[in-house]
Amino acid sequence: MARWAPGASDRLQRAAMELFAEHGYEATTVAGIAERAGVTERTFFRYFADKREVLFPGEEQLEAVFVDAIAGAPADASLTGLLIAALDAGGGALQDLRGREFARTRNAIIAANAQLQERELLKLAKLSRAVTAALVARGVADVPARLAGDLVVSVFGTAFARWIAPGETRDLVELQRDGLAVLSDLARADSG
Amino acid sequence: MARWAPGASDRLQRAAMELFAEHGYEATTVAGIAERAGVTERTFFRYFADKREVLFPGEEQLEAVFVDAIAGAPADASLTGLLIAALDAGGGALQDLRGREFARTRNAIIAANAQLQERELLKLAKLSRAVTAALVARGVADVPARLAGDLVVSVFGTAFARWIAPGETRDLVELQRDGLAVLSDLARADSG
């Protein structure tokens, strides 16, 4: 592998996704991933703790995008303004960084494995707590901050599922805005 | 153990909770739980698949309470009316069946073990999907049904955390109603 190639981390990820798709997640080994990517196993472990983590790249970075958008919003932003800022930034970063095709492939692999689904749930629960903490740091009270943390994850997750559905062309940020509008209608119906 | 005793399932559960509290979850064995409850290991496995499942009793039944409340609501119920029916029934059933002290003890055990937390997240994700399916069966469209399924779990989970907090005396149903009101205010602020 003397030819120029993109970063080892990206190559390992692409190799892993190919092998997961070809042979299934369980049958794929770290040795196989490293070989396909043209690096040593030692290099693999410099970037990922195990083969599962290849499917959860940039988790802390994505969480930071949501959190930083809340921390950096104007001082007079409403709670809803903070949530929109977080979702627009987070959804935008996700689709720019990985793209819809990567997300579709990854999702199919995760959907086929209970352990990966649990890992995904843990990731989303962590995101909810991070958003809640960021809101509390902006002076939002505990209960609305907790509900809003869950709401951000719910709107993100629902929009994500639509975004990767076959034939869907709208972008993730637009689908998140649509989800927020649906929730807003739901709550308004409550007061009527 | 010749004396009269409540059902073996209840006794096993009480014994398990005592041992988890005394020695920790990891150090407790099925053999130890069965001995404390005065039954054989075989009897244990008639009621629970493993020691983890002792901490997740009645999961399907609780899910059914939420689902049945939606299915059984008046034909003209609004979406919000369906969510209130589900939360009132589910929260009410949980607090009547187990009580706050059981919930506190159980929560402390789960909070100390990552594997148990993942199991708890899976339970809540299943509850969200069950509520969503029940709403779809009532004619609610996919996107609002999915967001509403998450919303029910979020309101339930947030109220549950408050309900088991030290010194809290309000009941779970009241705390869920309060959470719904907080969410409703949040969405109304959005439209202003």
Automatic annotation (TrEMBL), chains A, B:
Stored InterPro entries: DNA-bd_HTH_TetR-type_CS (IPR023772), Homeodomain-like_sf (IPR009057), HTH-type_TetR-like_transc_reg (IPR050109), HTH_TetR (IPR001647)
Highest taxon above the source species: Bacteria
Positions of the HTH tetR-type domain: 6-66
Keyword Transcription applies: yes
Molecular function as annotated in GO: DNA-binding transcription factor activity; transcription cis-regulatory region binding
Positions of the DNA-binding region: 29-48
Record key words, sorted: DNA-binding, Transcription, Transcription regulation
Membrane-crossing residue ranges in chain numbering: none
Name this polypeptide is given: TetR family transcriptional regulator
Organism field: Pseudonocardia hierapolitana
Lineage, top ranks: Bacteria, Bacillati, Actinomycetota, Actinomycetes, Pseudonocardiales
